[in-house]
Amino acid sequence: MNNMLHIVVLALLVLSAFFALWFKDLISSVIALAVFSVMTALEFYILQAPDVAIAEAAIGAGLSTAIFIIAIRACGKVKKSDGGDGR
Length: 87
What we know:
- By secondary structure, the chain is mostly helical.
- It contains three helices and no strands.
- It has one domain.
């Protein structure tokens, strides 16, 4: 039972890391990174390190996600230019 849970959590870690790189939208990538942090915290809890799990959940999933989203919203959308000299 415990080995199966490890395999599922590790598979979700790989899947969320893949989606964090795959998504073109930055907000979607940040959400995938938050899922990665939550899965990492769950893995630490399964490995009987609850203090590390709480720190990972609070800092990795909570604070980092909030900072990324605030920064992305502050920057706005990047405008693509068509190239040339504007004539």
